[in-house]
Amino acid sequence: GDDHNTLDLTGWVSIDNKSGMSYPDAKLKLVAGSLNRVQPRVGTKTNYMMADMVGMPPPQFEEHRMFEYHVYDLGRQTTIGNNEVKQISLLGADHVAAEKQYTYEGGKTVAVTISLQNSEANHLGMPIPMGTVRVMKRDKDGSLEFVGEDRIDHTPRDEKITRHVCNAFDLTGERTVTKQESIGANANEETDEIVLRNHKDEPVTIDALENVGSNWEITVSSLIYEKKDAYH
């Protein structure tokens, strides 16, 4: 929605047939998982659209497990012509709770990410195959405008999806090393300054992420910080 707290998710399978022959009344299954093969295999690709409102048909695939994969069965026969690209609805969910975040990791830009939980409580909760996520936003005139895209990996149910959508237009950052010296044979001391600029009409929260190596300690900080792991 306009408050960036919810979105509608629609997924479909795109089948591009360049085999040189048509397949009338074919039984179609999508097998999702990390398949180990000697030679690369041309297969289907999965696309997702995140938007305020998208009028798409209801999902037509039924999902079940098979070995270490998930199978999405169309459940009916379909004809795929030679040199034809066919799109079939895979999943759909409305009012999915999502979180929009701003992250600065050096340089001049501030990254925009969208996170959501793939759970039944969040109107999802099904294994989501690898594919491309395209994010759409409804403009003031009611039209849907493309605002960014990223790829997702195979995502089991109850796992979190976080994807980089774009870089913020009105947010900038600048990182400067103001002091650096050696304080021992295997130790350095460094003073860094990060300046974040917000040219928007409303306040925002920006997470500044620093990669400081595997053995570190912050002695002085102007703001409260959180240690995420051994390197950040």
Overview of this protein structure:
Strands 1, 3, 6, 7, 8, 9, 10, 11 and 12 form a nine-stranded mixed β-sheet that branches. Strands 2-5-4 form a three-stranded antiparallel β-sheet, with no helix packed on it. The protein is built from no helices and twelve strands. It starts with 5 loop residues before the first strand and ends in a 24-residue tail after the last strand. The chain has 232 residues and is an all-beta fold. The radius of gyration is 23 Å and the shape is elongated.
Count up the helices.
0
Element order: H for helix, E for strand: EEEEEEEEEEEE
Distance between the termini: 32 Å
Number of strands: 12
List the helices and strands and how they pair.
Blueprint: E1 6-16, E2 23-32, E3 45-51, E4 62-66, E5 69-80, E6 85-104, E7 109-117, E8 131-138, E9 144-152, E10 160-184, E11 187-198, E12 206-208
